[in-house]
Amino acid sequence: MRATYFCHIALLATASVVAGSAGAEYRCNSQAMPADRGACAAAQQGPDALRQYVQRMRAVQQLDFFEYVNKETLIAWEEKERRDRVAEKAEQVPRPGLASTSAP
Description:
Layout: H1 2-22, H2 34-45, H3 47-57, H4 71-92
Helix pairs in contact: 1-4, 2-3
């Protein structure tokens, strides 16, 4: 899980740098094309879903990952990752009175 977290952070950092420097046009404000609507919906689910959508659509239409990511999307992904980590830690903490007892 820790390696996955750092991979996502690296992806987010790269996305913010590339999106800012490449001048990618953010396409989720005006969703004229069906592929754009699908990509924006995938971006709402997270970076993995967007990456998979872009790869799947590559044979049909040329899509750029960073055209569907803006600062708000990056923040939402980071917050979701943070919530997932907190939930995972909560699941790992043993709760008093819930210790399993095995029958002899």
